[in-house]
Each structure stands twice: as C-alpha cells, then as structure tokens.
Specification:
heterotrimer, A mainly alpha (about 300), B alpha/beta (about 260), C mainly alpha (about 280), A: mainly alpha, two-stranded antiparallel sheet, B: Rossmann fold, 2 domains
C-alpha cells in the first residue's frame, strides 16, 4: 500500500516538474536569445540595425533593412497568392464538393502538410528556378537567375495552402446546417449564402488561419534559403535575389564563429524572428479558440 | 379527403429515400391556399422531410433521392431545369430553433430584400419596419435595430425569423415545429401570429403536439411512418377519423 | 437574377481552378521527387556511405544519411514521447486547474509554431556554453525539443476525450490518480497517442533547420554520441546545388527516401487517428 502511495507521489511530482520546465521553455529561449543579442546592441544602435541596408558583418556593418524588406516581400507575396486560393479551395471542398471528392481530397491535404521543407526547397530549385529564369522573368523583360523573391514566395505559398485550407474547412463544416438553410430558404443562391453568411460566421477562423499561415511563412527557413538567392540587399524587382531573416540565419552557418559580433547579430535576428512569429501565433491561437467556442456542440 | 377551396401545393406519388431508408412513401396530399395545414404524426415519421421537400432544402443533404411530383400552383417544382432559389423565395421557413443570421436585427430582415430587389435605403427601412410590425416585434426592437440579432431572447428571435421570412413576400410559410424551443408565452405569441398570417400566406405547420394542431389547424394531414394515413379539414379529422392509426394517435395510444 | 447566377458561376470556376492549383502543387512535388529521385536509387546508393567530402564528393551512397536520420529521430521521438506523456496526462482535470492547463496548452501551441531554426540556434548556444561540438547528442536534443510540443499537444487531444465515467470507474475500484492515468487513460487513448508520436516522428525526421548546426555533417556513420552525423534533410540541403550531377543525385535519392518514409508515417498516423475515433465512447 505504501509503495503505491510512494509511486503515486513520485510520479505526480515528476509530471509536475516536466510540465513546469517545458512551460517555461518558451521564456528560457527568449531570454537566451535576448542575452546573446545584447553585445550587438552595445556596438550598433537599434536605428542603424533596422534601417541601414548595409549588411557586411565582416566589416562591422549590421544593417538589416534589406533583409527586412526581403522578408516582408517574400512573406507578403506568398500570402497574397495563398489566401485567395486557399479560401476558394476550402469553400469548394466543404460546400460544393460531393462527399466522395471530399474523401479523396482530405489525404491530399495531409500529405501536402507533411512534406518536409527541404523537399519543397529541392522541388522549387529543380523546377521553379529554371522556369522563372527561362520563361517567367523574360516575359517581363527581366533577367534573372531564377533564385529570387518570386520563386521563394511561390513555394512558400504552396507550403501555406494546407494550413489555411484545413483550418477553414474545419470551421465551415462546424457551421450548423440550419443557418445555411435559413439563408437558402429566403431564396439566396449557394454562393450568396457563402458570401454573406458563412464568411461572416467564420470570420475569427479565417483571421486565425491567415495569422497562423503568416507565422509559418515568416519563419520558414530552409525552403526559402534554397531559392531566394541570399543577397541581403533591397531587391529591385520580384525577380531579383533577396534575403529573409530566417534564411539569413541558416546561411551564416560556419561563418559566425570567426567574426565576434556576427554571432550576436544573428542572435538578434533570431530574436526578431522569434518575437514576430510568436506574436502572430498567439493572436492566431486566440482567434482560433474564439471561433471554436462559438460552435462547440 | 381533399382540401376545400383552391389548392396551393399538391404532391403526386412523392417518394423520398435518404441513405437507403425509404422515408416518404407514395405521398399524395393537397394543401389549401391561405389556410393553416398541420402535418401531424409521431416523431421520426417524415414530417420534417415532407416539409423540407417543398422548398427543396432536402437536396442539401447527401444521398437523397426524390421521385414523384410536387406541384406548386400547378408547376412541378422538382423539375431539374428550374432556378431553385426562386422556388425557395416563394416559401418562407421557420425552424424548430430560431437561427438568426450573424448580423444585426435590421440586416436579418433586410437580407432577403438586398438579394432580390434593388431598393433605396428608405424603401428598405420601410419594408423592414412593416415586416417587424407584422411579426409583432417592432415595438421591442425599434430602438435597437442595429444590435446583433443574437442578443434577443429565443422567443424574440423566432419572431424575427418570421419577419425575415415574410420580407421577401413569399406565398407559403413552412413551419417546422416553430414553438418547440419556446416557453409557453412565446409559443402562444407565435401561434397567434400564424393565425393572423394565414390571411395573407398559406401556412404549413409541422407539429407533434396534438393540442397545438387542434388549436390552430384548418386542414390536417396525418403522417405515419412515411405514409399519409388520413388528410382533410381539421374538424372532420379530429372529430371523425376514418383510419385506425389516426384514431389511435388521436386517442394518445401512439405518440 | 442573371447577375446572381453569373456571379455564382464565375466563382465556381475560380474555385475549381483553385482546387486544381492545390492538387497540381502536390502532383508537382511528388512528381519532381519521383522523376529525379527514383532513378538515383541503386543498391550502391542505399548501402554505401558517402565519400569525398560533401558538396564535391561524388563517391559512395547515402547510407550515412539514412542511418544518421534514424539515429537522430528515433531517440528524439522516444524522449519527446516520455516527456510528452507526462505533460499531457498531467493536463487532465484531476491534476491541474483547467485555467492553468489552458495556459500551458497555449504555450505548447506557441512552441509548436516556433521555427525549427530557433531550436537549432538555442541548442547551439547551449553547446557552445558546454563546449560540445556538432554531434549526434546535440542533434537529438534539438529534435527532442522540436518534437515535444507536437507530440504533447496531439496526445493531449486524445487524452482529453477519455470520458470521465471511465476514470471514475477506475477510481471507484481504489486506483490512485497516477495509476489511473498511466494504466487506464493511456490505454484508452492509445491509438491517438500513437498517432501523435507518429506525427512528431514525421516532423522530426524531415526537419533540417534544427539539426543543421547541432548535428553537423559527416561522411561516415556516427560511432558515438559525440560524432557529428549526416541526415537525409541535411544531405539534401548541402548537396542540392552542387555543380556535379553525381553529387546532386545523392540529394535526389535522399529526397526520395525521405518522402517515402514521411508518406508511410503519415499513412500510419492517419490510420491510427481513424482507429482512435472508433474507440471513443459516446
């Protein structure tokens, strides 16, 4: 009897301990990143870091402006492509498609969601880069190696599809059929019902999907790194190479050990990345919880 | 027995199969114009299915097979070539639980108006007020027209749904146990409303409280396990039922 | 009326195009990998380790990467499971106030969303502080951290669905909370737990960013925990842009193998999820 009580006590305390450690992991990571960034902030002002576009760590220049622009361009364009396509796809799957088609499309989304980033990057490198270089850029009269903002944004959009689509389908399916019937019985078409009722009722979910998709896109490292071109300057057009925050960290592998402030600079970049992604994820999860609470059965 | 007076809806050999189950079997009924027709019978016998086949909402579900004819003013609405939203516009729907659209009170009523007509704001305002008055709820909401409809009580929401449905000027009102979620006072209000509305609309009321049917019905259809056992003017069916199952149901032997 | 029908038809067409694009993307990915990778799979590729250094080394095969991936992902998943099961059982109502549990779930959700490169950098900092170089053990730790939130939250979803009546039945037989958690809840939620573990494994085996700095790279199979090691994702990452076709072939072969592994894991995971649905007592 006592042995059982002892086991119960130890077991419970162990679980408590693990839970505490992991719950504060987030803070531990934050503080270590912050601590390691401080040397940089001692040498260069925040203004210089964020607004100068001269990134030459070996010579002591740590201007991130070009990289920030690159990040916003790549992320923004990928979402611009992904959001409309994902929404339309989600509406079709949950409202218009036959059950059989839905059954087939579900595993498609699961597989797409499970593809590792390197594989996305590799496919983009093998197919999209030559395509952009040989066909797309010349169509606009631009010379490009194919390693550019557009290619990175495009493959990123594909990576974001499953996230937005799955979240939206989950929400659309949760809307009570009676609500749709109420709209249809007034003589609205299916599309009008979608536009005026379903989208309205799903607003928190859609916002959450977009926020979480943004977080994913902003933080994607490997696939972007493989095709964005790695040039830390403000790109002149979409077919020029650029650099993103996440990709920068991956590129600096090996080099950062030799230059003293370089490591601190990269920690700062990681900190920026961390903060932005976490903010978007928190917002996204909050909206998701709000939408789930609405239609809990 | 057939309906007395002009007929609005008539079904001929209507059969509905859902997921392989034969829900409605060879239903032949007539529903008279501008009267309250109650569809009565034990739960699960296909009353709601029959109601929802009239405005073709049944087709929203998967694996539904409908055969036969449903004639509304002589036109078979099951004809595949027809534009379904217009068919539905002719019939308003009241559900068991009110489902206000996720918008303000005003917008709920204006919803149908915005879709079907191009009216000026003043015209929409006038129509909204008219319909809310007709539904008996104007005084309670006139000062908060732009508040979310979900803030109303359940009884008020149901009356709002009446206003929303009548706004598009249907000819028929399909009511699927509209008082089952309401407290007795709110239920009474809805019943009174339906009796008033029958002046202008044909009301088809699915109910499984016999007493409600006895209170308001002009015409009765008794549905038992998907088959029409008896139909006719309310007085005749209630006082002198011909069919043994009808008699049993009316006596309370089956519920 | 015509305007309404026209609008619906236009959007219907757009919808179908969108679905086509999404399906096309998957076809594009799978097709590219199969077309480029399938032919690189020779017996030699699978059974020999690399030689000649990465980026320029054209000899040998990818065995070091295959084994490296397994040696990294399997222990990491096991560790993440052990930690995760403790947490997810602890999140139940009998141990923790629901509001606190909700906060912890939120922090796990956030940890799930952190880019894997951050986990890699974090572990790198620890490595540097402890004086450890790129090694198997560092890679395992990084992957474990990455997988913990994924596995924990997935298992948590299944454990949440265990009906309280079942637990009460166990308590009324005289079991302690801990015993019920370990014996009854865990068993009831087993398919969901397995699905969660598979989800974490799939993510861990495919991730490159977290092991880029921590596991390093190597031509040989690691002999000890302190050796650096190659893995399928890092092999792809380092070799994909090599000017030498034979080297790129290794990357394609690695990608093919990786996709096969990830797809199998995904199928198994989905089967487990479906199984868990059957176990749910309504």
């Amino acid at each position: 009897m006592e042995k059982r009580l002892l086991r119960d006590f130890i077991g419970t305390k162990l679980m408590l301990g693990i839970t505490i450690v992991i719950s504060v992991l987030f803070f531990i990571i934050f503080f270590i990143l912050l601590a390691r960034s401080i040397p940089l902030l001692g040498e260069a002002s925040l203004q210089e870091i964020l607004f100068s576009s001269l990134w030459n760590p070996e010579k002591g220049s740590f201007g991130l402006a070009g990289i920030l622009v690159g990040t916003i361009l790549v992320t923004g364009i990928s979402l611009l492509i992904a959001i409309p396509i994902s929404l339309l796809c989600a509406i079709y799957i949950s409202e218009y498609a036959h059950e059989r088609i839905r059954h087939i499309l579900r595993p498609f989304l699961d597989v797409l969601a499970g593809v590792p980033s390197v594989v996305y990057g590799l496919c983009a490198f093998i197919v999209l880069v030559p395509f952009t270089r040989d066909y797309l850029a010349p169509m606009f009269g631009v010379e490009s190696t194919g390693l550019c903002v557009f290619t990175a944004a495009f493959i990123l959009a594909i990576m974001v599809f499953p996230i937005i689509i799955s979240l939206c389908i989950e929400c659309f399916s949760a809307i009570p059929i009676e609500l749709k019937e109420a709209s249809l019985s007034i003589g609205a078409t299916k599309w009008e019902t979608v536009k005026k009722v379903i989208f309205k009722a799903s607003r928190p979910s859609i916002i959450s999907a977009i926020l979480l998709g943004f977080g994913r896109a902003f933080g994607e490292t490997i696939a972007v790194n493989m095709v964005v071109g790695g040039v830390p300057k403000i790109p002149g057009n979409l077919f020029n190479p650029a650099q993103t925050l996440a990709s920068l960290i991956a590129s600096a592998y090996g080099e950062m050990m030799s230059v003293p402030l370089y490591e601190s600079a990269l920690m700062f970049v990681a900190l920026l990345l961390f903060i932005v992604v976490v903010i978007f994820n928190i917002l996204g999860v909050l909206f998701l919880r709000r939408s789930r609470r609405r239609y809990r059965s | 027995m057939n309906a007395t007076g002009p007929i609005q809806i008539e079904t001929k050999k209507l059969n509905v199969r859902y997921n392989g189950n034969h829900i409605l079997k060879d239903v032949n009924i007539t529903i008279p114009k501008q009267k309250i027709t109650a569809i009565i019978g034990p739960s699960g016998c296909g009353k709601t299915t029959l109601l929802k086949s009239f405005n073709r909402l049944l087709e929203l579900r998967e694996n539904v097979r409908i055969t036969g004819e449903i004639l509304v003013d002589g036109v078979n609405i099951l004809n595949p070539g027809l534009f379904v939203p217009d068919i539905r516009k002719k019939m308003g729907l009241l559900s068991q639980r009110p489902y206000p659209l996720p918008m303000s009170i005003y917008e709920n009523v204006a919803y149908g108006l915005r879709i079907h007509n191009s009216l000026t704001k003043a015209e929409i305002d006038a129509r909204v007020e008219h319909n809310l008055k007709e539904a008996g709820i104007w005084r309670e909401v006139k000062d908060r027209l732009h508040d979310p409809a979900t803030e109303l009580s359940v009884g008020q929401q149901q009356r709002l749904c009446v206003a929303r449905a009548t706004a598009v000027q249907p000819e028929i009102l399909l009511c699927d146990e509209p008082t089952s979620a309401l407290d007795p006072i709110a239920a009474k209000q809805i019943e009174k409303l339906l009796v008033q509305l029958k002046k202008d609309y044909t009301v088809v009321l699915v109910t499984h409280t016999l007493r409600q049917a006895k209170r308001v019905a002009d015409h009765v259809i008794f549905l038992y396990f998907g088959k029409v056992m008896e139909q006719g003017p309310a007085e005749e069916v209630f006082t002198n039922p011909q069919d043994p199952e009808t008699q049993a149901y009316l006596k309370g032997d089956i519920s | 009326m015509n305007k309404r029908v026209l609008e619906q038809n236009i959007f219907k067409a757009l919808m179908i195009i969108s679905v086509g694009i999404v399906i096309g993307s998957l076809v594009f990915i799978v097709g590219t990998i199969i077309v480029n990778g399938a032919f690189s799979i020779t017996l030699e590729m699978l059974t020999q380790t690399s030689s000649g250094g990465y980026y320029l080394g054209r000899g040998g095969g990818i065995l070091n990467a295959i084994l490296g991936s397994l040696l990294l992902a399997l222990p990491a998943t096991a560790l993440a499971y052990l930690i995760g099961i403790g947490i997810s059982l602890f999140l139940q109502r009998e141990f923790l106030h629901p509001k606190i549990a909700s906060l912890i779930r939120m922090s796990l959700d956030i940890l799930w969303g952190i880019p894997s490169i951050i986990y890699g950098i974090f572990c790198l900092m620890i490595m540097v502080a402890l004086g450890i170089g790129a090694s198997l053990i560092a890679g395992i730790v990084a992957l474990t951290l990455l997988e913990i939130p994924i596995i924990t939250r997935s298992m948590d979803e299944s454990i949440k669905m265990v009906p309280i009546g079942l637990k009460e039945g166990s308590y009324s037989l005289g079991s302690t909370k801990f015993e019920t958690a370990i014996k009854v809840v865990r068993r009831q939620a087993r398919p969901g737990i397995i699905a969660g573990v598979l989800l974490g494994l799939g993510r861990g085996i495919g991730d490159a960013a977290s092991i880029l700095f921590t596991a390093g790279f190597s031509d040989s199979i690691p002999a000890s925990l302190s050796d650096s090691t190659a893995a399928l994702p890092t092999m792809i990452y380092h070799l994909y842009s090599s000017p030498i076709p034979a080297v790129r072939e290794k990357a394609y072969a690695a990608a093919f193998i990786l996709m096969v592994i990830v797809t199998i894991i995904s199928i198994l995971s989905r089967r487990m999820t479906r199984k868990s649905m059957r176990y749910i007592i309504k």
